[in-house]
């Protein structure tokens, strides 16, 4: 059962000063010395915390709140864990690999003497896991108490705050954004579904929507008071927002659009098919708004109705296609992303082929391919697994299909786009921006500013993005040349200069001063020919 506010004491307990005998420093046992040092600490002063995040943008938002609270309390929040005193690990329970990564990091941190606090869905859904017994835990509805947990953990105590029987954290809590230009706004927690493979419901619980007025005020403050340029809406299921408070998603979206300033954008997060089927026209109208990215993430998970039924997804392939077809027809150049779960226990080869057919039909530019992993405590985990070799074969086949096509074809070179640049690319020489369709476009860093729009011309394409140069530069500018960012570009200038010199000498010898080359550069002239010398 969940434990609220119970402090688990380790083998070295803190004691009141009256319980500690006064001794000379040489006589003070190590354990008592550590306890005395801990009790004398001023929380936050000189102490460093690292917050590591796995999973969805909802987890990202939670981490930003925890980092903001810790920063306000005086802690240094670091980007890397090496020099941190405390590691706050915000975990994801969707996939086994991400949970295993968190497990490995707990072991690594303990070996390095770090204080460990586990947050997120893993700790909430499975707090009794053996590898979580020697760490502090903060539940998904307790993130506003992270400062208390860090303070107690630094004292050597193990804290477990897991109850969900309390209100969600306030949207107005201090926040330290991963990207200062992007507000990640959680519009609800939990969901209405009971998918047989998913463990997130065990962590986040049933749907609880934040009030419309609170969400609009948070967005307004982020844009107008804090200078963000993008608003990302997130939740376990965006489309379900409002169902518990007698509202629907279009109500919220229409209210949010009114507070988006000129030059700023909003992006919708993941929404399951059932909850937007009744609002296709309204959603399309929102996506066509110039301040909203024409982007939609609709996870289909499988194109087989039989598998969808076994997953308890509450929609059919026809429902998904109805949404996709309507949006493609009514939202110009819309960008549709989706997810697939392959090798679900009841998936046959015929079921798998149906999913492959759906990918061939729509050629999704973003396709998140997930091999099924059984999650303990879920109904699907009790089913017989598909052979691992076969599961990997199916995953590889769909991955190969995904690599075989691209949205960014060669015929798009030369297109003109307006791009909002919000971050620096991994190569450190480009800014990352997006156009109205949320297509990723790279712009040379020397020609763009973070948080500003720029008009660009596409110069080359890759599988996942387009590379561009500003239209303000002439087309023959070196930035337009495909080898600009190639290691071979350094040979272009000397070779060009060399060819110009040769041509100039030839021209001078032939038309200005015949015999010049033979006189001054005889090694360039073949005496058996008259190619360079004409009387």
TrEMBL record:
Read off the SMART domains from this record: Elp3
- Pfam families attached here? Radical_SAM, UPF0004
Topology in the lipid bilayer: Single-pass membrane protein
What does the record list as GO biological process?
Answer: tRNA methylthiolation
Domain of life of the native organism: Eukaryota
Which GO CC terms are listed, alphabetically?
A: endoplasmic reticulum; endoplasmic reticulum membrane
Domain TRAM residue range list: 410-472
Required cofactor(s): [4Fe-4S] cluster
- Keyword annotations: 4Fe-4S, Endoplasmic reticulum, Iron, Iron-sulfur, Membrane, Metal-binding, S-adenosyl-L-methionine, Transferase, Transmembrane, Transmembrane helix, tRNA processing
> What is its EC class?
transferase
Specify the signal sequence span. Answer: none
Q: Which GO terms describe its molecular function?
A: 4 iron, 4 sulfur cluster binding; metal ion binding; tRNA (N(6)-L-threonylcarbamoyladenosine(37)-C(2))-methylthiotransferase activity
Q: Give the family, as the similarity comment puts it.
A: Belongs to the methylthiotransferase family. CDKAL1 subfamily.
Protein name (database record): tRNA-t(6)A37 methylthiotransferase
**Organism in which the protein naturally occurs:** Caenorhabditis briggsae
